[in-house]
Write a structure and sequence with these properties.
270 residues, alpha/beta, 7 strands, 38% helix
């Protein structure tokens, strides 16, 4: 990623952070809400976080960092935006937690080798232009046997691609959603690489926001709004979530999902 793109990302996310407030920033909902399918899946894979060292790359407002701290992890939150890191500290304090926030690019991590049990990367891989460098850095800072988990959008779904074209004011133009070729790239650095796709028929929720709620994608980030939903408000949608459990296991259909969870493990020394 060029210096100009880094600057553009930092400025965009600085402005976003300045508009946020801790009391209106959901934390538990991003991992426990009915629409938090990706994070609920990741939590099951992570298991007990008590005492684990965890690096949150591209932490944004810090919701995930604070949640992991609430679950007992020792968290370092990293973001390119100084204002995002400042807000993440405020959010942690609001919830009575402590995190270690650092301003840095994702491609050059300011961390020692073999220092983390877990690395969490949400909505970041599709922003970097040098994925091999980022994956190599993740592998470097993980302890042998340590694992990383990433959530990023795929590039194939026509509904999501239309949404991206419309949401020009709430995202940066450098986004490059993932392809299934990125799985082969991850296998160059990690073992036990796996993936799971989410949101297929359940993307009807986005259509509801646009056609029924009349919310333009530039008015509100749909991918944030979903975490304000409850079991009650999503009664009509829950069967679609269940249907996707089966459909996203079909190789041809899962390419049309919105998000991929990607994970892998750093090999133990031979």
């Amino acid at each position: 990623m060029s210096q100009s793109v880094h600057q553009q990302e930092a400025v965009f996310h600085d402005q976003w952070a300045k508009q946020a407030s801790p009391e209106n920033t959901p934390v538990r909902e991003l991992f426990e809400g009915p629409a938090a399918m990706e994070n609920r899946f990741i939590l099951r894979q992570m298991s007990d976080l008590t005492g684990k060292t965890l690096l949150d790359i591209g932490c944004g407002l810090g919701e995930s960092s604070v949640y992991f701290a609430l679950r007992g992890a020792m968290v370092t939150a990293l973001d390119i935006s100084p204002e995002m890191i400042a807000f993440a500290h405020k959010l942690a304090s609001y919830h009575g937690m402590h995190i270690n926030g650092k301003v840095s690019t994702a491609e050059t991590l300011p961390e020692a080798d073999n220092s983390y049990d877990l690395v969490y990367v949400a909505n970041t891989l599709h922003h970097v232009t040098d994925k091999p460098r980022l994956l190599a850095e993740i592998a470097r800072v993980l302890k042998p046997g340590g694992r990383f988990f990433a959530i990023d959008p795929l590039r194939y779904n026509p509904v999501i691609n239309m949404y991206r074209r419309m949401a020009t004011e709430v995202r940066t133009p450098d986004e490059r959603p993932l392809s299934f070729a990125d799985l082969a790239l991850a296998r160059q650095y990690f073992v036990d690489v796996g993936h799971r796709e989410f949101w297929l028929t359940s993307l009807s929720l986005f259509l509801k926001y646009y056609f029924i709620n009349r919310i333009h994608p530039n008015q509100q980030r749909y991918w944030k709004r979903i975490f304000t939903e409850t079991q009650s408000s999503l009664r009509w949608w829950l069967p679609l979530r269940s249907l996707d459990e089966a459909l996203t296991r079909v190789p041809g259909l899962r390419r049309l999902a919105w998000n991929m969870v990607l994970w892998g493990r750093k090999p133990n020394p031979t």
